[in-house]
Amino acid sequence: MKQLIETIVKPLVDFPEAIQVHEQVSGNRVVYKLSVHPEDMGKVIGKQGRVAKAIRTIVYSAASSHQAKRVFVDIMD
User: Fold this and answer.
1) Which of the four, 9, 34, 51, 76, has the lowest number of CB atoms within 10 Å?
2) Can you give the pTM of this predicted structure?
3) What is the per-residue pLDDT for 77?
């Protein structure tokens, strides 16, 4: 999933080298924490959160077929 998130986000940002995805597993939850360069934050979130919602939708649907755990994507400041 980390690779999928990076693949989706890289074309959107101006600083692809600043992309970091951390995985946090607890119980039946997996949380992926995405952090990008501060100047790219608006591009990743999009107007009214549309881009962020689209990223989450893709990751959720991909994870539902591979894992029995609940998957969440957080975009960190």
Assistant:
1) 76
2) 0.88
3) 78
